[in-house]
Amino acid sequence: MNNVETYLESRLPEMKSLLEQLVNIDSGSFHKEGVDKVGTLIRKQFEDLGMNVKVHRESKYGNHLEIMHDHDSQPKIIIIAHMDTVFPAGEVKKRPYKVIGNKAYGPGVSDEKASHVAVLFALKALKASGSDAYKNVHIIFNSDEEIGSPTSKAIIKEAAKQKDYSLVVESGRPNDGIVTERKGVGCFVFEVKGKSAHAGVEPESGRSAIEELAHKIIKLQKLNDYETGLSVNVGLIEGGISTNTIPSNATAHVDVRVKNMKQAEEITSKINEIAHEEYVSGTETKLSGKIDRPPMEKVEGTEELLHIIRSVGEELGMSIREVSSGGGSDASYTSTEGIPTVDGMGPLGEFSHSETNEYVDLSSLSKRTALLALTIERLSRAKQ
């Protein structure tokens, strides 16, 4: 066992204690007060480590944190973590942090508060071992990842400039999986306008927005091509005012997942075609939305980065495997900048966003933190 592993094993009680504190703070994307409370706790921990923390203040969502060793440093590794969860205020009261066997449960425990602990203690372990590699990181803790990073996207892209590697710390996958590819995510909204009329007295004078939308929904669902990684889901519809009224309005919200940018361009074009087709004469359709989180694709250097992580894993007795994910993350914003990027570098966990089953494997906490720490050290040496 090396110095980093020894240090982390000795700090496990502290790591678990911090994890409990973080999970027991409600920090849904729209709960600014809670996210900022998490941010305050994280900020203190990193400042105590001697790191410089810049706070990007936001009015609507939580504040973002940008962390480096000092103002003049030029780190070559960007690490991205998010403080927000998908759960509303009050969730912690219903189901606070709890441990059953080797698994810890609670809102956001895997997605991704265990990763906050891992990033902090990875740097602590490096510093304690005498390695300066902890100075070679530029860390972003953002507050709005779960809703597409609307206010932090620009901060991430700016921080990513001139970086050699990007490590994103969503939870690791079972059996030591890390993520090398993710789908891009888009949301489109169809708003159909028709003409209302009494359904019994003069139905022929109406123009049903729901009927028009129904035709479009069938066409949209037929766009699915799971074998190529394309999924289109009309997940929410609404319309009309009563059963005896020809509906003058109808709306559909459509979730789209794409494997690559070529697919994103093609599906956007097809969705626009469907929006502009008219099935019920006299109706009009307004389309809004786009692919707003691009796919995370492998770029030049990704395989080299993966090789280094696998090598570090072998030294720790781990067999690292690569996986792809249908979910989006901030990893897409660094990969599209051409930076070799891997995701899933956090402790192992499953069932993110679940109201009952989300957990993190506590037996992986020190080992996966060691993987992160020693990867940072190895990457720092690789560029010297």
UniProtKB/TrEMBL annotation:
Task: Work out whether the entry's keyword set contains Kinase.
Answer: no
Domain named Peptidase M20 dimerisation: residues: 180-282
Q: Which InterPro entries match?
A: Bact_exopeptidase_dim_dom, Pept_M20_glutamate_carboxypep, Peptidase_M20, Peptidase_M20_dimer, Peptidase_M20A
Task: Establish whether keyword Hydrolase is in the entry.
Answer: yes
Q: What are the catalytic residues?
A: 84, 145 (proton acceptor)
The Gene Ontology terms for molecular function here are:
hydrolase activity; metal ion binding
Which Pfam families would you find in this protein's record?
M20_dimer (PF07687), Peptidase_M20 (PF01546)
PANTHER family according to UniProt: ACETYLORNITHINE DEACETYLASE (PTHR43808), BLL0789 PROTEIN (PTHR43808:SF9)
Q: What is this protein called?
A: M20 family metallopeptidase
Q: Which organism is this protein's natural source? A: Metabacillus sediminilitoris
